[in-house]
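Q: Predict the assembly, please.
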Amino acid sequence: MARQPAPALHGAQHAWLWATAALTLAPHGPYLPSWLGIAVLALMASQAWRIRREARPPPRLVVALVAAAAIAGVLATYRHFFGKDPGVALLAILLVLKLLEARSARDAQAAILLALFLQTAQFLNGQSLAVGALALAGAVLAVGSLASLQLSDAPRQTLRLAGGLMLQGLPLMLALFLFFPRVEGPLWGMPADAFSARSGLSDRMSPGAISELVKSDAIAFRAEFDGPPPPPKLRYWRGPVLDRFDGQTWHPTPERIVEQPAYRPSGPAYPYRLTLEPHQRTWLLALDFPPGNLPFARYTPDYRLLARQPIRSRQRFDLMAYPDTPVGLELVPADLAGALQLPPGGNPRTRALGQKLRQEGTPEAILAAAIDEFRRAGLTYTLRPPLLAEDTVDGFLFDTRRGFCEHFASAFGFLLRAAGVPARIVTGYQGGEVNPVNQILEVRQSDAHAWTEVWLEGRGWVRVDPTALAAPARGEGSLARALDASEALPFLLRTDQNWLRRLRHQWDALNNDWNQFVLGYNADRQLALLTRLGFDAPDWRDLAGLLLGSAAGLFCAWLVWARRPSPPADPLARTWDRFCRRLGRAGLPRLPWEGPLAYAERAALRWPDLAAELRAIAQDYSRLRYGADGSTADPKPLRHRIDRLKPK
Amino acid sequence: MTGPLGRLAAGFDRWLFRLRPDEPAPVELVQRRIFVLPTPAGLAFATTLLTLLIASINYSLSLGYALTFLLAGAGASSILHAFRNLLGLRLQPASAEPCFAGEPLRLTLAMDNPAHRPRPALRAQLVGGPVAEFALPPGETTYVTLAKPTQQRGRLALGRMTVETRYPLGLIRAWSVLSPHFDAWVYPAPEPDPPPLPATPAHRPGAPSGHFGQEDFAGLRNHLPTDSPRHVAWKIYAREGPLVVKQFAGGEGGELALLWSELPAHLDVEARLARLTAWVCEADRLRRAFRLALPGIDIPAGTGPAHTTRCLEALAVFGI
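A: Predicted assembly structure:
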């Protein structure tokens, strides 16, 4: 086969490639180092200019120099080439440079494959509906670019072809998506930076830590209760428990794992399914208090539930909550030394107040007096507390009197410890909102909260939420009502935007479906689906069988579609085709260059007895086809005439 | 390809591609003679998808699975489109210009699309020849001219040809191998620098030929595409008559005799044929009447394209 020089790419093909690359690179923009982002933008702009001007590609030497500079820059930024971020940076640079130097269809195909890699890589940053839609658009453009290398149709037709191919591929995609045996990753160790750090609770608490978090209305987790959810004042989702205070920051005790929780669950039970957004920690943030014997979880002595692996992807857990369970009954005062620890100095005024409260006698009385103190102090709950310098507790309680939940919890815990009552800080989430669309409780970062637990002889650890003393609405689960109207809250948390809230609820419900049914589709769900399809104890062999079966079925259906006869476009052509086939079967096929009259003449020589009829048919057809009245005439009589013809 | 092994290979080839030595025209591309395989770009695409799948498994990217499978679906449906782009195509050799050995043979095929869907991005190629690209609108016939290198004189069978398409994505090549029955004439290559035409034999009085000068009008004949526009009878054409060409008889001599037997003895068969071919062409160019005599063949003196063609054909198949 003679090899011919590959034809150069033309402007429309360059434009297709450019659009594909632009749509592929755009979602990566915020994650690229800024110098690289600017370089990519500049190179894309220059490429757009070159396409408009139909300029020639830059010399290869220039491209090679830019590539070398960019690779050196990536190395300087990340110090290595391994991992997600440098990988994506290199791919982005490669894609743009490939675009710049693309001359032949092969170059273009290489660029398109690079774009496919980048489109998949964007899922490492997030897999929301919007990201999915963007990737879909990018994939359609990539397929369109491939098609544009084969034909030079108008862009709209090429786009329609690409969309049509994707639509026809949809059944196969669904079969693969549902039945391709899912393996739980990772297959090998993941680079440490595989998933970008996401905002969430910290494992320590200093003033301002939680009020920063509250400005985000991102979903932290969702809970789907089988019955009605517990009332808002019971919705405390337990995160890190902190009991060492250094004057500024509360720290957790070193982590210990226990086989089973020390309490015995009692009271009403709330079964629910918790869907956690990834937060890179093992915290399960369960509602107080989970039962024992959960196979996927581990327990800590401070009643938290931990996953066995960090939550790196959205995960779902079947849980129970027993909010009325008494905890810590088994402890003796000797176990509680840690809950009385205070830093050696600082906050003298609070210490003095604690000493005063000590005189109340019993811990119950001291607690009641402390609560009274808080009620009377005229404390204001605000998202924008004034900055406090040295003695943060004193400053909050006696000077500024304005603070957020971490100030309240920290001050309350400090005060009780100063009064000799064991106390500690619990951080986590409080409240959440039931989405009226799907009845799922949504808990956002803005529901992050800190409260205190106080240990009382005979009652164990008792939850006291000092924030609720100053802002009762917060305890009812509404941050918006707890705060002054002038506070800068995330726009969508405001209560007066009702239609917006409704829209938001719809959107969140849609997102939840997306998370559950698309993103959360894993090996377990796959087997559950098979069970529902009627398989007993399904395993991967059933999956493979289903996959092969459905793929084979689809291919047969496609083949039938491809082979379906497609008759000539208009009835008159079909009629003439009939005539030619009839004579052809009798041994006289029409030659491709032969007009109707010439063909009839030749046929008349072969069948002299039919000559008149043959000529008449050809003339009729010519008149219908080419005559002035032809377009409106009915070809049926001609067809009957042809059917009566019996050439031998 | 000789020997039992060669015959076996040729037989396998014929079986695989369902070739008959000479297929009656028109040849229709039916399902079992269309072959589908990935192109290098298709293999690269598949490798990419495999990598993406492994990455999706490793990072548990549900959307990664979805995107990979969607692209796989599009790639798979492109197989069907490539196949369908050839399915039902009808093809028939229409005409071939004779050529001299060593020149490419130019052959025109009628490509017929009986379906009411367009067939874009088609390519056809005779074995060893360049690729011709074409597209077929719905229900239409297009004439495609293919070239094929020639080395030997004689009746050249069209031989094997391929029709292929990489529509729609360039990932899949669907092709069909066929050898429609068709022969074309390949004349012997004319000697590049032949000696002058042999001298006119003794003038015979009364013979009309040869007495006209170069400019002497001898009649009209139908126009051929190769005729010089200087010889077209424009006056007749302007009166809405047919496009005809004025013929001039004469030249400097009378009837020529191009005789095999008169050629120098040291020339072998092919050299003789080359010289005679060159002479026939020269005599035709000068529009002189000539006689051609080969062992066993004697073509009486004549002139005009039909005569020249007859002589060239006789030279082409001499001894074959």
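The mean pLDDT of chain A is 84. Chain A touches chain B through 73 residues (CB under 8 Å).
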